[in-house]
Write a structure and sequence with these properties.
globular; five-stranded mixed β-sheet; 3-oxoacyl-[acyl-carrier-protein] synthase activity; 11 helices; 32% helix; fatty acid metabolism; alpha/beta; 14 strands; fatty acid biosynthesis; Peroxisomal Thiolase, Chain A, domain 1; lipid biosynthesis
């Protein structure tokens, strides 16, 4: 038995993202349900969100993944594993990863989907890092893509004002030094009913207060542990990119983390909650706007249905 070559580390080589063109503002929602701009902003911090019209999860994932691959300088032949984090496929078979890989011209890669809801991208990123470091893959395309609009009751203001569509992607490859820190992940299955779709004929249901209390009390220790395992003090972080669940949650965790020098992602204001897409989408947009610099350290922290959570420190590409 031979052991494959093992990389010293893994890192994010490049990022990419995609958002649908159709914008839904708070005023738009106020025309169809009992809500208004002030009510929505005061509770979740969202001004507008993007909603896919004709695009599928696979369509958005392909565009975001293609942008990340182009930015990495690699060819499709250089990728041998594709992972798509999503919980909103219209059908469960076939998986999105194989479809996306084929559309991008990636020949015969390993391909699978991850459903850890809003923590999905961080789970997929950790899996990709382990695959590269263990010699199971050379380069991995990791994508978070969601079309939550097809699972939301657009007459229910408790969910319709929050969720949105989009995709974000990262290419993970080998590195002489670690560029993706150890993952801290876990779950709170006793609270699984707090966010759920009961059956095929149901819409997404969320117990907002339960999720808010859990997120604002249980997750900052996870963030601190992710920093500790990476050997990074929060003061060294250039960016903090948590799942864009709710602006109040984002800011509460950021305060408790104490990363005073970090740029905190607040993509939710204009993008809404895009579940597994939110972290790569937010980070890619931060890089694109020049808000963070290559080589800096970012803490990413995903959390959501399950309830699941995961976080790690990464080097910004």
């Amino acid at each position: 038995m031979r052991i494959p070559d093992i990389a010293a580390g893994a890192k994010v080589l490049a990022l990419g993202h995609y958002q649908p063109a159709h914008v839904v503002t708070n005023d738009d929602l106020a025309k169809t349900m009992d809500t208004n701009d002030e009510w929505i902003q005061s509770r979740v911090g969202i001004k507008e969100r993007r909603v896919a019209k004709d695009e599928s999860v696979e369509d958005m994932a392909t565009i975001a993944g293609g942008k990340a691959l182009a930015a990495s300088g690699l060819s499709p032949d250089d990728v041998d594993l594709v992972i798509v984090a999503t919980c909103t496929l219209e059908t469960q078979i076939p998986n999105a990863a194989a479809v996306v890989a084929h559309r991008l011209g990636i020949k015969s890669p390993g391909a699978f989907d991850v459903n850890a809801a809003c923590a999905g991208f961080c789970y997929a990123l950790a899996t990709a890092s382990a695959a590269v470091r263990g010699g199971a893959a050379r380069n991995v395309l990791v994508i978070g893509a969601e079309k939550l609009s097809q699972w939301v009751d657009w007459t229910d203001r408790s969910t319709a004002v929050i969720f949105a569509d989009g995709a974000g992607a990262a290419v993970v490859g080998p590195s002489e030094t670690p560029g993706i820190g150890p993952v801290v992940w876990g779950s709170a299955g006793d609270k699984s009913e707090a966010i759920e779709v009961k059956d095929r004929d149901s819409f997404l249901h969320q117990e907002g207060q339960t999720v808010f209390r859990w997120a604002t009390t249980a997750l900052h220790p996870v963030a601190l542990e992710a920093c500790a395992r990476a050997g990074v003090d929060p003061s060294e972080l250039a960016a903090f990119v948590p799942h864009q669940a709710n602006l109040r949650i984002v800011e509460a965790i950021a305060r408790k983390l104490g990363a005073d020098k970090a740029v905190v992602a607040r993509d939710i204001v204009h993008a809404g909650n895009t579940s597994a897409a939110s972290i790569p989408l937010a980070l890619s947009r931060m890089v694109e706007r020049g808000e963070v610099s290559s080589g800096g350290l970012a803490l990413v922290l995903g959390f959501g249905a399950g309830l699941t959570y995961a976080g790690q420190v990464i080097e910004i590409p």
